[in-house]
């Protein structure tokens, strides 16, 4: 039991979670140590964990509670998210560590592992009406069905217990259906939470507020006023030691099928009838179902794929993708994808949506750019025939900002001249509370049984249904090499240049 009462949540903090046993399969793995435990510690710091909530790690490591707590303490000590949030008081850290337990369990040779897990869960602190139980599968997706079946066989999947599935959910539509069928045989759709951490980002949720709480945008949020939309997720790092995983997925499966298509849905969706868990997800599915198919020659014409080569980045030499540790020297896996998508409905007919993601890029940032059309007739002197159109830039990372690029009169006497003058909303400057990171928010939601920001089965399968023909069209082709520290392969720039457009390269906002 925690040694002391949790802190009072600060004003504006995310809601607290109900009393829960959170069981993390893969509890000593990279995801648990880098993301889940730091997020849970920050929830502890903000007073959002119920006093009797427990965190149970399950892994093959033959260690006890004390050793696991030591590993967890070392992991959170230098975690960037924890450091950005400020010092963690010693009583808070102690209280958090006391919540942690570890159960050794090898799926191939379980021994008494399942019995030990069941005994620990059955010994939950009493007095918590409606105490929840959540199984977080921070494991390879091919194990999801097996773990769920084992949970059921050991009497651990009953009641209102829930399961969280990490991405990627399969590698194509067929495998995604197999996983969904296997999980669904044990956990109903209502109890299944497919997580995409991009949907937990504060700015992504602010996108919903921006669109549906501000009337001035709705009349212009359509093909009459918007020229095109760009969605970019750029990384400076390579694949490093993750080559074994990445070579089976590539940028299309790793980023486009989930993260970028989710952002496209939020930009393009119709207003839901309410901020209800199913109403929001219904509208997202409609967008995916409206995507014009890309297959064969059309897919090759409207996509570009690349693979980073060896070179210099940030003043140091870096290997190419095929030179990374454990790499297949002949791999044709893409580390960069750019594509042009079309949402075939009345609102968006004729508006291209450009999606782009890549590794070893010049800068790390994720953003959405809504480019408006130009004025129909320029009247100001010295501006030529095409003054800069307005654009809305929604930055997701590293900083979280919403910036509207407008034109204003340049100060001074003389000829009236225009120049860009952005209006900017910085979330960190505008609100005097720390913004919870994505995993903090989503972990709280799943503990409270709120699936609004999680993906539904039909949503995942609709995304795969659109992506699979694109991947199929690439078979037998090689990705275009691109230098590290740049803006990707030339083919990505040609994709926009054919229509007289160019990528927005993510200006600094701070």
Termini Cα gap: 44 Å
CATH architecture of the largest domain, by name, is 2-Layer Sandwich
CATH topology of the largest domain: Dihydrodipicolinate Reductase, domain 2
Strand order of the largest sheet: 18-15-14-13-7-12-11-8-19
Keywords: Carbohydrate metabolism, Glucose metabolism, NADP, Oxidoreductase
Pfam family, one: G6PD_C
Family: Belongs to the glucose-6-phosphate dehydrogenase family.
Binding site for NADP(+): 60, 106-107, 167
Description:
The chain is α/β, with parallel strands linked by helices. The chain has 2 domains: 178 residues, Rossmann fold; 278 residues, Dihydrodipicolinate Reductase, domain 2 (2-Layer Sandwich), CATH 3.30.360. 34% of the residues lie in helices and 19% in strands. The protein has 15 helices and 19 strands. The strands form 4 sheets. The chain has a 9-stranded mixed β-sheet, with helices on both faces. A 6-stranded parallel β-sheet has the order 3-2-1-4-5-6. Strand 1, helix 1 and strand 2 form a beta-alpha-beta unit. Helix 9 packs across helix 10. The longest helix is centred in the middle third of the chain and has 26 residues. The relative contact order is 0.14. It holds the Pfam family G6PD_N. This is Glucose-6-phosphate 1-dehydrogenase. Its EC number is 1.1.1.49.
